[in-house]
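for the writeup, i need someone to sanity check this before i put it in the appendix. the sequnce is what the collaborator sent (i think, or maybe the updated version? ugh). structure was predicted straight from it, no edits. if anything looks off just tell me and ill rerun, i have time this weekend
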Amino acid sequence: MSVHEQFAADLALYALEVLPGEERAVLEKHLAGCAGCRGELEQLRGDMALMALSAAGPMPPRRSRERLLEALAREPRQAPVGRRWWTLVPWVAAAALAVALVAAGLQNLELKQRIAGMQNESAQQLAELQRAREVVSTLAATDAMRVTLVVARTPAQPQGRAIYVRDQSSLIFLASNFQALPPQKAYELWLIPAQGAPIPAGVFKPDKHGSATVIDPPLPEKVEAKAFAITVEPESGSSTPTMPILMIGAGE
């Protein structure tokens, strides 16, 4: 394993600003004397910036709390005329017991709802953490195929960057400066294998900034990629490319 491969994962964590202190100091010392790793770090930061442009954060969960029996507590109590106060004791005790049972039932229901909510939030956080680990693993993989796509036969303004790990069938595509398309139309990414027909690798539409991402689309296992290309297709995607090919790029 080369020195650069040793720091591959640390570069991704450093770009995310989550690398621990001791390891951070070792990496920064290495970066001071290694132009190659400094260039890889800037490349990772650029990729993550593009992903941030097209990311949409989740809405915070809505919570509401209702308190019952307040009206009952505010109601004035008057003893019925002509009755001794001790004759009311059993009824008062029964009413108090009923109120206590209702309150306990409500608290138990609220507790169950809170536990269910926390379990759902925990599951979502674990899923997001696993997703982030997979993204970092693909970005930091030393055997990743990194492809930059440019506009065919015109000055390179829109750009697409594909990061593909064959052994994991993992693909991350980052688009920038793409033009908006007519309704019912979308861009489609294609994996051009070393042998065989082009393979659909995800449909995307750019946001108002012209940015978009495609992360881990369904792909056949361990396909050797010769290049990647982009065409304009229906929103639902196509099984074969519709000419002309707008952008194409081979491995770096």
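Strands lie at 145-151, 159-165, 170-176, 185-193, 199-204, 212-215, 225-234, 247-250. The mean pLDDT is 78.
thx in advance!!
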